[in-house]
Amino acid sequence: MSKNTSTEPLALLGGPKTIQKQFTRYNPIGAEEVEAARKVVEGGLLSQFLGCWDPDFYGGPKVQEFERNCEAYFGVKHAVTVNSLTSGLIAAVGAIGIEPGDEVIVSPWTMSASATAILHWNAIPVFADIEPETFCLDPKSVEANVTPYTKAIMAVDICGHSADIDALKVIARKHGLKLISDTAQSPGAMYKGKFAGTLADIGGYSLNYHKHIHTGEGGIMVTDDDVLAERMRLIRNHAEAVVGDKGVTDLSNMVGYNFRLGEIESAIGIEQLKKLKGLVATRQRAAERLSCGLNGLKGLRTPVVKPDCSHAYYVYPMVYDPEQTGISRVRIHQALVAEGILGLGACYQNIHLLPMYQKKIAYGSSGFPWTSDICHREVNYRKGICPVAEGLHDSSYLALGICMHEFADEDVDLIVEAFRKVWNSLEALR
Ligand SMILES: *Cc1c(COP(=O)(O)O)cnc(C)c1O
């Protein structure tokens, strides 16, 4: 048991720190992964992809096995592994037949690759606002941003919670749009009985080292569509060199790359996938304990889990209302960090405010693609277009990076104690 410090002065004001220990770094890799990787290395075949039309166009035995296991696990017709989700999203946007100048509606509350995957094909990212509860695309804002040039929606299942996929599907169907889910942060999260990421035309999970399960770097794309799956496999592996012999006649976006995942990573991925359910359950347990402990703190909203959904807690996202306490988020954040809480973030990202979009300088230095003829209209990236995302970023979002450490019950209790201590001393912070 830790000493109850809640009556002592805040660490920020010279008192003792609530949390003296370092939490254990999150590490889902164990003996199974070591053994699986060792076997591949001993066999000497570290990759078996050939970039031409050949049985090995689809990769080696571990890539195949991992993909079949992912299909079974997520309940999808096709899983296509890639060397990162960034690569996978590029393949996905290419696969749906995007044309230069097409617009794709995307969330600003995400990692930058969700939008650059669009820009990569000289298509135009259009930012819609997010819902304050889940931080995912707000269908109303998406609908308001549809133009005759819109081709697709890139929904992002952020923080561990699915976007409102049913509502987005209604909009997609109404306007003839494709729907892509960037589910990097939410593998294992559920939406109405199905895995987040599996309900869009294409979904994808990241396997980078700070995601729930990882292979160092890597990604898994999922789809039930045979054509989209095959087009992603082509873009993954030098499409332009394969289409001739394969007899592919639709040459659109058959510009290929090397987005291939290796055999070592796939062997590790096979073991990681077996652990996903347990890893998500562990985070849910920690998050529920946190939410219980933090319940009732003035101005603090713990994560919202919508009906028929489950949260995979990539982070534990909170909203703090400075109006209710009279203390800015910056000050509260400083006080919490001073108490020894590790991995507490005070803001996330507003992708539309990155210099690239503000200055509209991407390919070359003269504003391509925005200034070129392929761009149908002047797209607005100015501050103010996504008031909810901007407000959260500027003054009210707080998130505990559950992805960075193991959260044993006693660690969670220490975090709760630190929060309660700070909230007991709000007067001293004013
Ligand atoms: C991590 C992440 C990505 C990119 O995944 P990589 O595998 O690192 O390329 C994309 N989108 C979101 C929301 C992410 O969190």
Q: Which features would summarize this protein structure in a list?
A:
single chain, about 425 residues, alpha/beta, Aspartate Aminotransferase, domain 2, four-stranded antiparallel β-sheet, about 40% helix, globular
Describe the structure.
The structure is a single chain. By secondary structure, the protein is an alpha/beta fold. The protein has a domain of 242 residues: Aspartate Aminotransferase, domain 2 (3-Layer(aba) Sandwich), CATH 3.40.640.10. The chain has 15 helices and 13 strands. The strands form 3 sheets. Strands 1-9-8-5-4-2-3 form a 7-stranded mixed sheet, sandwiched between helices. Strand 4, helix 6 and strand 5 form a beta-alpha-beta unit. The site of pyridoxal-5'-phosphate has 14 residues, from helix 3 and helix 4.
Chain-wise SSE layout:
Layout (H helix, E strand, L loop, with lengths): L30 H13 L17 H14 L3 E5 L2 H11 L7 E4 L6 H7 L4 E4 L11 H7 L4 E7 L8 H11 L2 E5 L7 E2 L2 E2 L6 E5 L12 E5 L2 H11 L2 H8 L16 H32 L5 E2 L14 E5 L1 H4 L3 H10 L5 E2 L9 H5 L27 H10 E4 L8 H16 L1 H4 L1
Parallel strand pairs: 2-3, 2-4, 4-5, 5-8
Antiparallel strand pairs: 1-9, 6-7, 8-9, 10-11, 11-13, 12-13
Helix pairs in contact: 1-9, 2-9, 3-4, 3-7, 7-8, 9-14
Bound molecules: pyridoxal-5'-phosphate (PLP).
Pyridoxal-5'-phosphate (PLP) binds next to helix 3 and helix 4.
